[in-house]
Design brief:
With about 450 residues, the chain is α/β, with parallel strands linked by helices. It is built from ten helices and 22 strands. This is DNA repair protein RadA.
Length: about 450
């Protein structure tokens, strides 16, 4: 007979070893190697299970899809990200930084769903019911069909589900709930896996949609095992800056809809409010033209948003000029400055400090904002204001040419809808020609020639 030995296996990647180690040598995760006590050399037989009529496999054409239809939550921006609403039996994970407003958003979702006559169970594992009641009174999220429970034990939460029979379950948060069937403290990978898998199994069996709140680590990833993101149906990320009231909800994974949609919200004193048309949030309110500004059209999901890029160029006496950016990629700004020096004739940029920022705290990560950044820097360098009617979008290559970007027609249509009559894009050909055209438009007359800088 084969000898039974203890084997230690990583719960993240499956790597095994004969002795315990604190860190997996394969995936480099800490605290994921556990003793599985498996018997070696023994082949276990699996007994076939007699299937009932409800569990027997059937042709895919005979499967009805009415049960998987989207039901609106009452918040249009949240439904946009989910693909139209909440699907029965879906497990949705919402993650975000502490204090960004996850609990406020889900409390508003619970109130809107309860307002339609469906019963909602809101389980808080981090606050008391009195604290949640206080916030709900401030935000106007009070309803008779909204039930509250402050529980941290998984078995007790399942008992609450049996007693209330809700149409929607919200658990805030999954990292603070523990199960007696798994060892370890709440938040450890084994506990998070057990809690999440049990709640997801209940959701599938009862066609009960479950909204889970997830914590994030220092680097912004979801805390707990990576398996958590594979188990759930939808993974949403709640983004926002503490210095601004604007919030974004993005779908990182969605089995029932697209993953390129973005929902816009604004945190107010009365709670969280939708922003259906955020066109004017990222533009300055000044009416007079100022040098060093240019408007680009960024693509957030399927939504085109005008964003104003501001630049400031000042002479420096330091041996190394400063490059300070906010809301844009520092490496791309450095590349654009080098292209302007080499391809557009701005030779003295190496003797100036360059500051680049966006309005409203929005972050531009796509290359489509390169041309607007270049025009803003050139405008600040020459101290010539770009007209309010000009918008620019396009990717700049190291050769100095303007390359096309995705959804160019949609960006152009959105710019024209907002009143931008002059659009700089791939038709400009090169960054030198685009900057020339912007500077000529700033003079108000085509007859005035540019100075020796170009």
């Amino acid at each position: 007979m084969a000898r039974s030995t203890s084997t230690f296996r990583c719960t993240e990647c499956g790597w095994s070893t004969v002795k315990w180690v604190g860190r997996c040598s394969e995936c480099q995760q800490w605290g994921t190697v556990i003793d599985v006590a498996e018997a070696t050399g023994i082949v276990r037989a699996v007994q076939a299970v007699q299937l009932g009529e409800a569990r027997t496999a059937r042709p895919i054409v005979d499967v009805q899809t009415e049960d998987a239809a989207h039901r609106p939550s009452g918040i249009g921006e949240f439904d946009r990200v989910l693909g139209g609403g909440i699907v029965a039996g879906a497990a949705i994970l919402l993650s975000g930084e502490p204090g960004v407003g996850k609990s406020t958003l889900l409390l508003e979702v619970a109130a809107r769903v309860a307002g339609t006559g469906r019963r909602v169970l809101y389980v808080t594992a981090e606050e008391s019911v009195a604290q949640v009641r206080l916030r709900a009174g401030r935000t106007g999220a009070l309803h008779d069909e909204l039930y509250l429970a402050a529980e941290t034990d998984l078995a007790t939460i399942l008992g609450q589900v049996d007693a209330v029979s809700p149409a929607l379950l919200i658990v805030d948060s999954v990292q603070t709930v523990s199960s007696s069937l798994s060892d370890g403290l709440p938040g450890q990978p084994s506990q998070v896996r057990e809690v999440a898998s049990t709640l997801i199994r209940v959701a599938k069996e009862r066609q009960l949609p479950v909204l889970l709140v997830g914590h994030v680590t220092k680097d912004g990833t979801i805390a707990g095992p990576r398996l958590l993101e594979h188990l759930v149906d939808v993974v949403c990320q709640f983004e926002g800056d503490r210095q601004t009231a604007l919030r974004f909800v993005r779908a990182l994974k969605n089995r029932f809809g697209p993953t390129d949609e973005v929902g816009c919200f604004e945190m107010t004193g009365e709670g969280i409010a939708e922003v259906p048309d955020p066109s004017g949030l990222f533009l300055s309110s000044g009416r007079s033209a100022v040098s060093g500004t240019c408007v680009t059209v960024a693509l957030e999901g399927r939504r085109a948003l005008p964003v104003e890029v501001q630049a400031l160029v000042v002479a420096t006496k330091a041996p190394q000029p400063r490059r300070v950016v906010n809301g844009v990629d520092p490496s791309r700004v450095a590349m654009i400055i080098a292209v302007l020096e080499r391809r557009a004739g701005l030779k003295s940029l190496g003797e100036h400090d360059v500051y680049v920022s966006t309005v409203g705290g929005v972050r531009l990560a796509e290359p489509g904002a390169d041309l607007a950044i270049a025009v803003a820097i050139a405008s600040a360098m020459r101290d010539r204001a770009v007209p309010h009617e000009l918008a620019a979008f396009g990717e700049i290559s190291l050769a100095g040419e303007v390359r096309p970007v995705t959804a160019a027609k949609q960006r152009g249509a959105e710019a024209k809808r907002l009143g931008y009559t002059t659009i700089l894009d791939v038709e400009a050909g090169s960054v030198h020609a685009a900057v020339q055209r912007a500077m000529l438009a700033s003079t108000g007359s085509r007859e005035r020639e540019l100075d020796a800088a170009f």
